[in-house]
Each structure stands twice: as structure tokens, then as C-alpha cells.
Amino acid sequence: MKATGIVRRVDDLGRIVIPKEIRRTLRIREGDPLEIYTEKDGGVIFRKYSPMGDLQEFAVQMCDAIGANTGHIAAVADRDSIIALSGAPKRELLDKPNSPELERIMEQRKHYLFQDGDTPIRVSEASEKYHLGIAAPILSQGDLMGCAMLLLSEQDKALSEGEQKLIQTVAGFLGKQMES
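RE: above sequence
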């Protein structure tokens, strides 16, 4: 845990204001859920809550299966970062912030298929090496939870509609799993 040097008082309703700089750095937006943890020594930790976190182990297994059967890089992201990955070095993409372009695609709640000649869309701010091949939003009860993706490296060609259907199916399945 890293000290910020910022001190805030609890108001009469028990609220604490998280400074704008910290919200911007951690990408905490108005309405984002925060999970609260306590430590034995009296410490309190706030962590962004990701409903997709409950499915992370399952998402990793899905990515492993998709990657093994398609030969492509498979990934699942929540609204903030990639939470599951197969076929690429994990240190390059896993838990790294999503690119603003990927966030825009997710917010549109539409499927995305890269075509030859399109401008590549980076998946993460942390890496220029991989771009989006296919993306399908993960929706649970109408709420956007993240997206399922196949990624391409610079030399890869556009993917097929069959692979797009596969990723749409995975996204739909993960969304249904979150509802139960």
C-alpha cells in the first residue's frame, strides 16, 4: 500500500471525498461501485468492484480454450482492464488499463470486426503491439460488464465472421453467467 499524503475527514453522514486526482488516476467514475476491505490493524481499503472478477477464473479457462482452438489471442476485459488472456505474454496486457478506443467501442454496445485497411484499435494503453480483431460486449441484464475479444498482432490478417460469431457466443454466455 502506498501513502498519498492526502488526509480527508469523515462528514456527519459518514462520507469521505476521494480526491479528483486519485479518481482520475484510478479511473473511478461517478456511480462506480467500490468494494470495502478492512485490515486487522484498523486500515480500510477501497477497491474498484468488478462484477466480472467473480468470473475471472472461468474467463481464463474460456480464453485458454478459444486460443487453443483458433490459434489467436483471446481476451476478456471488464470495463477497466483485461482480466483474462491466452496466447500473449500476460505481463504485457493482463490488468493493464483499457485504451480509450476500446472503452468507446464497449460503450457503444456493438460488435466490432477489424477489416483489412481499417486503422488498428489498440486494446491497452500499455501496449502498441496488439490491436482489436473482434470484440463483443458482455451485457448482463442490460448493463455493460466488459467485452470478449480476439486480438491481432501487426502481421495478422483480419478474422472471419465465424470467429466473430464465436466471440459473440462467448460474450453472451459470460453475460448469462453473471445473471445467475
